[in-house]
Each structure stands twice: as structure tokens, then as C-alpha cells.
Amino acid sequence: MSHLFFADDSLVFFKATPEACAGVKSILAQFSRLSGEVINYSKSHIMFSPNYTPSRFKRFMRSIIGTPSEESLGKYLGCNIEVDGRSSRKFHPLVEKVERKVSSWHHLSLSHAGRVLFINNILSMLSLNILSVFLIPKIVADKLNSIFVRFLWANSRNSKPIFWKSRKITELPKGGGGLGIRNVHLFNKAILAKQAIRIHNSDQSLISQVFIAKYKSSPINIVLQNKKLGRVSWGFRGLCRAMQDCRDGFTKQIGNGADTSIEFDKWLREGPVAVRSGLNLSNMGIHKVKDLMKSPQKTWNSPLIWRCFSSESAIRILSTHVPNEDQQDRYVWSESKSGVPKVKDVYAFFLKSKGALNIPQEDRQFWNRLWASDLKPKWKFFMWRLLNKALPTSSNLLKRNIQVQEVCPILFWKEDGIKSPRTAEFTTTLWAIWLHRNNIVFRNEAVNPLAIVEIKTLLLKELEESSRIKERNSSLSPINAKIEGQEHNLLDNHHNDVCVILVDGAWKRRKQNHPRAGIGWSAHVNNNKIFEGNDVVFAISSLQTEAHAIMRGLREASTKGINRVHIYSDNKELVQALHKRQYPFEVASLAHDIHALSNKFISCKIHNMGREVVNPAHVLATAARLGKIVS
Fold first, then answer.
1. Global confidence as pTM
2. Which of 150, 225, 255, 543 has its CA 20 to 30 A from that of 410?
3. Maximum CA pair distance of the chain?
4. Which H helix or E strand runs over 606?
5. In total, how many domains does the chain have?
6. What pLDDT digit, counting tens, does each position of 113-132 carry?
7. DSSP, residue by residue, 357-388
8. Per residue in 422-454, pLDDT tens?
């Protein structure tokens, strides 16, 4: 590498010889003559290799260039360029920057809901450019986390706050009963993991080429292939450590099966395969996944699989699609619905690995409904504090040895839906009681139940007014515009030479060892049925079953010489994935074959329709699942 050009900065690399220095000086002088721009050598500097260089030699080289020398490159965009990771001192400016920002906001009267928003959207973003480059030491991350949680509960800069709930609770996702405050250490690793994946997939980018030239491999390959790391830069080491912590989120997507070990590689999302007791695959000459396939047909060897593996593992193997095209096995991120790794998906994986997301489904649904409701943010936070016993009530204050007068406890009524008027009325009543109580304690107001009713009425009017404003704004949004004038008889809305194929999959979770999944297809031209059929397939989900149905419908149309095809499916998730080319892991191979088949037609479109439109295919698929095959 000879140079790096940034927006208004340039780095030039050359050997520390008099000839090289004179050559660079000559090139810069020629550039100034031709462009008319003069380089300010007093603001430029020269830096020598950290290897031993005599001072006399440095002075001589520096005199040729005419610039001062420096021992480090300093900062770029607020981030230190040279970080070795052996000391947290390089990251102290980051902590000081966040502390200054918090200090400037302490005098403002922010609600707790506003503070959570401030922490997640402002304080975290201050350090984003550093978190996306280096793995910061855990002691620095813990310091930032402490600043965040102190800012959440403190009333002023000098007061010692009462930490009503621990960081372990507040850092949980909102759907898990927390406040969604990001843990800096986990967030840092999630961003670095995303960077490592991007570098691995963009092999033509400059940083990818530099890493390959320097370390002979990308961070993903080093971790997933268990290569020795050796001496590397702190930036590269951070990428590898982040990948090491989320390596269980990667699964090998089977192509030809030649590069995947059956017992030592993770190639099924659910975990390793279970070999039947008493069998040794190595003694049987079975090592790679390709040994479980019938090579010419590119299909699984079902008798061999049932003989070698447990019923559960056999079903999972047979449910894995083998691509028709010859493809190499490759690692893909399998913990995302879209199949595209995102920072939030990796962060959720880290939380799940720590057991932070192990909460009952009923509790998750309640919290999701509460945070998605139309209540004001501070009311939602008030409800969260109430349910988590984090309000400064007498009982809670007495537990912390703060002497106050005891009062009666307040009972909580079960939440009643996202836009329920009873939920709004109940919450405003609690909020009004809380405000009136504060007025009595801190403003010496007299006890007046009518004041509670007046406060409640005023709050409900404010809520009603804000709801009207939201509805008026949403009605103007093009997102909510409705498409009108569509005909219900969709089979008649195409040209004479277009074949409309209705497809559907019938899948049901069963406890038996041999679950059945059925697919059905029914083709029409000008509302006249030309062919139909159904079949039984192995599938581990309804999404995978629907993908089999689409592929089979395309295959039947191709064999009958049809050139223009419209596929109707009632699975919105799968249709969107095929259009965006972002596939969940379980249907990735099927999706590639679907696109390959669609390219054989002059015209091929896949649409999402309602169940009533694809009902003929649904009847066929259900019949197939029950064992009734249409010949």
C-alpha cells in the first residue's frame, strides 16, 4: 500500500531513505505547481516506524521533507488511530466525552422516559465511531454503563441516586420486561461482528484486501475454521473476539456437502446430529455430508440416513434442501428472520446466550402490548416502575431504611389491549393519584379527591387530542393509502397466455417420529384448470413447506412447456423474502432453486394472495398431508 486518501487528509507510505524522501518532496512540489494549491508543511508531519531509528537519521530525513516529526498519528474523527489494547488509557477521552454530555443535560427536567431515549439515541451514538472499530476494554464499557444508569435514576449531578432496579433488569429488551438500555460491551461486540461479516462478504473492498494480504484470512474464516490468531493488530483482534463470541450463530449452508464434516461442523441450525448408538460413521467410511447423498440425483440417501441417525436428526437432515446447482458449502448467519445479519440480531443473540431472554411467552406479550400502546411515554414508564416495584412508595422506601409514613398499597388491574379505553382510563387514574400525592407531600396541598378527578379529566383530554393529531397525520401518509378498484376474481386479470398457479403447503407440528407435510398446486389459464396435483415432502416449518410448493408448481409448469407463469401464495413472509432476496436460513437453498427455475420462463411473477384465492391448492395440500395423493 502506497497511500490512503480521506476527505481532507492523506497518508503517504514510503521507505525511510534519502532518495524516497526527495522523490516524495518532488511529487508534492509538482502537484502544487500544477494545481495551484500550496501544501502547509507546518501542519503536516512525518512519522517513522516504531522500530529503532537513530535520532540523527530522523532529523536528516525530516529536513529533506521540511515537516516536523510525530510519535503517533493522533486521532481521526475523535478516535485514536493507534490502539494496542494493553491499556484503557487510550479510551479515557471517550468516557470524558460522555460525562461532559451528561453534565450538560443534568440541569434539565427530563422524565425517565426521556432519559432512556437520551441514553439510547444520543449517548450511545457519541461512541459509535469508536465502538465500530475497536473492542473497548470491559472496564471502560462498565464505566459507560455506570454513567448511563446513574443518569437514569439521578435527580441532579451531586445527589446520590436510589438505583431502584439493577442494570441486569434495565438492560433487558422492552419485550423482556426491561427498558432496552444497551449494554455497551455487548453492543460493541455486536457492531464488530457485523463489521466482520461485511468485510468477509465484501472481498473486493480495501479493508478486506488489506486483511487478506496481512493475515491470509478474514476474521470469520479464522474463527470458524479454528485457525491460530498469532500477532495481529488490536482492531483485527477485536473483530476476531467478537466473532468468537457469536460463532454459534453461524451454520453451514449445504451446497454439494464436500466441505462439511457430519459430526464436527454445525450444519443443522438446531444443533449437532445424533448418531444411533453402536454406530461409528468413520468405520463406515462416512465423513462428509456428501456421503449422505446420492450424487447423480443430488438427493438424500434416505435409507442410509434413517439407519445411521436418530429419528429427530433424520427428519432434520431430510428437511434440508439439496440445491440442484453445484454450490460450495458456506457459513451463513442463521439467527435472523431475514437471513441478513443485523446489529440488533447479533445483540439479541448475545442476550439470549446469557439467558436474558428466557421469559414466559405470556409476559413477553404483555410487555410488548404495553410499550406498543397509545399511552404517553412517561405513563408507560410509570406502569413499568409500578409493576417492577420501582416507585418511591412508603414500603419501598422503608426497605431502604428511609423513614416515611406507611400508606395503603395500590392494586394493579390486568392490561386490556393496545388501544383499550379502559387501559387509558385506569393508567390516567393511577397517574393522577401519583401527581396528587406528590402535591400533598412536596407542596403541602390539602387532601382533595376531587383534584384527582380533575387531573384525570385533563389528562384524558390531552390523550384524546394527541390521538386525533396522530390519526390526522397518519391519514396523510402515503404508507396508509389503500389500493382500490381491484377485482376479486384474480384469475381473470391476466392475458390469455399467462398461467396462474395456485400453491399452498399444509404443515402441522406433530410429536410423532414421522411428521407429514403436504403441498398442492392448481394451474389455470383463462379461469380454466389445466393441471393440478399434490405430494408429501419433508419440512421442519410451514415456511419451508410453502417454499417446496412454489418450487414444485414452477417445476410442473416448466415440464409442460409453459412460458409465462404467475404464482399465487398465501405466505406473505416467503413472498417478501423472495422479492427482497433475503431468506431465512431454513429456505435459503430452496429460494436459490426457485430463482433458478423462474429464469427459465419468459415471464415469472410471484404474488401474495389471501387464503380464499389459493383455496383449491390448500385443499390439495391438506389431502396430501393426510395421505390422499391425487394421481
1. 0.70
2. 150
3. 93
4. strand 603-608
5. 6
6. 888 888 887 766 777 778 88
7. T---HHHHHHHHHHHHSSS-HHHHHHHHHHHT
8. 777 878 888 889 888 888 888 888 888 888 888
